[in-house]
Model the fold of this input.
Amino acid sequence: MLMRIFFIAAIFGIQPAFSKPLITDSENTYVSACLAQNASWENLEQICKNALEDGNLTKLEQHNLLEALGDTQRWLRDLENAEATYRSMFALNVGDAAANEGLGWIAFDKENFQRAAEFFELAVAEAPTAFRLAGLA
Done:
């Protein structure tokens, strides 16, 4: 029976399905690919998760990867996981502006404008940027 399946597959040119690799450039690592954010949102989420599995990351690298992952999850409208990702950044103690900004945009997306303003005020107080100020508008 198995021989018959292989024979039919060979006749019709059916080949086994292989998944496409997330990174196709040998110059890239999961860390650099996540931070570059040059992939589809779906692929980027997995790339960032893979990057975070590296046991040799500094706290700042972890922070930057978590920010990219949270942003990706927010763009995918996975607000629950994005919120958890942003909140996990606080434990790294390397600055909370990006985490507060992300939480501000989530609150904004949920139309909780008062809470959004509170997060944006915290983010601006630590590290003002035009994007964070826009959240206050």
Observations:
- Residues 59-75 form the longest helix (17 residues).
- Confidence is low (pLDDT under 50) at residues 5-10.
